[in-house]
Amino acid sequence: MIFNRNIINNFKNSINLKNKKNGNNNIKLIIISIFTIVFSLFYAYENCIENTITTEDLKRPNYNEIEKELDVQVSAQGKKFNTSISIEPKVYTAKEISAIFSEISKKIEDTMLGENSSFDNITSDVVLCSSIEGYPVTIQWLSDNYEVIDENGIVHNMLFEKDESVEVVLTAILQYESYSAEYFYEVTVKSCVLNEKNYPKKISESLEFAKNNNREEEYIYLPEKIDGVPITYEKKANWDSIFVILMLGIAAIIIVIFGEKSKQKKRADIRKKALKNSYSEMVAKITLLIGAGMTMRKAWEKIVEEYQFKKFHKNIKSKAVYEEMTESMNQLKSGVSELTVYRDFGNRCDVREYMKLSSLLAQNLKKGSRELLSMLKIETQDAFEERKNQAKRYGEEAGTKLLIPMIMILLVVMVIIMYPALVNFNM
Fold first, then answer.
1. CA 409 to CA 416: how far, in whole Å?
2. Has this prediction a pTM greater than 0.70?
3. Is the distance from CB of 195 to CB of 229 less than 8 angstroms?
């Protein structure tokens, strides 16, 4: 009992504490809950408990409204079953609908003319409405001359002569439930007055007539005048094609520019590659000639003369490094200083090894050539070592390039081997 009392006391204390904290919020919550319960009970009473059908439930919709469905529960002989009753709108009496038909016919007369001045002077389209707002009546139109006025009210008078006129009878059939009535409207269609608004339409109908007229002839003859106004014809410029051609031309220019740049870059890469391949040979020749006692200028001249002799007498291919050396030799003969020539040589080659060599040659011109031979020997050894490494890299690149053809050959071999096996397996 003591334990139970403690629990009850703790529960009461907690409730009091919550009430103090929440205050007015609990009161609001209680009011909302009560209101919800009361409203739910009232709604249940109205719709579920008090479910007697009243006269208001069986009231028909108005004339222009749609039918409504009433779900009901029917009891008979102690059994109940659910069904629905379709309550259709009220319908007019014969007298009422006759009056309504008369009202609609007058409204048709008011709206039918459209932009025309009177029924005796129809020059533009008439308004043939299929219904009148506020009336549950459908309207169907007939014409005794569809070539002049069709059932949509479109007037075809573009090919009329200047003072030509045609009388047309339009019939409006009004329909409501089982009641119907016919009203006749006599109109006189005259040739239209040519203006900016209807001019395109008149031209279109004239061209349509020219297209369908005399189809047994070889050519179409376009009208030279419409209502006395001279007409000229020109082919419409196909701007889409012009735009496409322009875009293709621009694209071609861009492709040519980038292609040329790509070719130039490729030629430059081939040239640099050739210069690197020839570097060890050229440095070795210079080292050999200087070691034999020649000056740098004499060694340079000797190498160029030997190259020119082989080029013209033995038809060897041109080599980029010796062509550059020939250019430098021509500069020396024209009076340019050796220092400038060697620097220009390195800049024209634009390869790290040649720029290093030109710097070495220029430095020795300033300080003297005592240590030039030893430095050239070191450079020759480094150049041949680099040539070996370069040859290894070329071999690795060649192996990588052969990888894709090898894979393709492998796939072909696999197909050749597996195809007969698959065919025999299916058989």
1. 11
2. no
3. no
Half-sphere exposure of 303 (CA within 13 A, CB side): 26
Tokens of 229: 């106004």
Confidence of residue 3 (pLDDT cuts 50, 70, 90): very low
Percent of the chain residues topping a pLDDT of 90:
4
CA distance 387 to 380: 10
Give one DSSP letter per residue of 324-391, joined into a string: HHHHHHHHHHTT--HHHHHHHHHHHHT-HHHHHHHHHHHHHHHH-SSSHHHHHHHHHHHHHHHHHHHH
pLDDT of 194 above 70: no
Q: What is the pLDDT of residues 117-147, one digit of tens each?
A: 888 888 888 889 888 887 888 999 999 988 8
Angle at which helix 372-401 crosses helix 352-367, to 10 degrees, equals: 180
Q: Fill in the amino acid letter for 389.
A: N
C-alpha count within 13 angstroms, C-beta hemisphere, residue 351: 21
**Per-residue CA distances from 318 to 271, 274, 312, 326, 338 (Å):** 11, 11, 10, 11, 24
Map tokens 């008090």 to a residue. 50
* CA-based max dimension of the chain: 141
Summary mean pLDDT of the chain: 78
On whether the CB atoms of residues 338 and 332 are closer than 8 A, the answer is yes
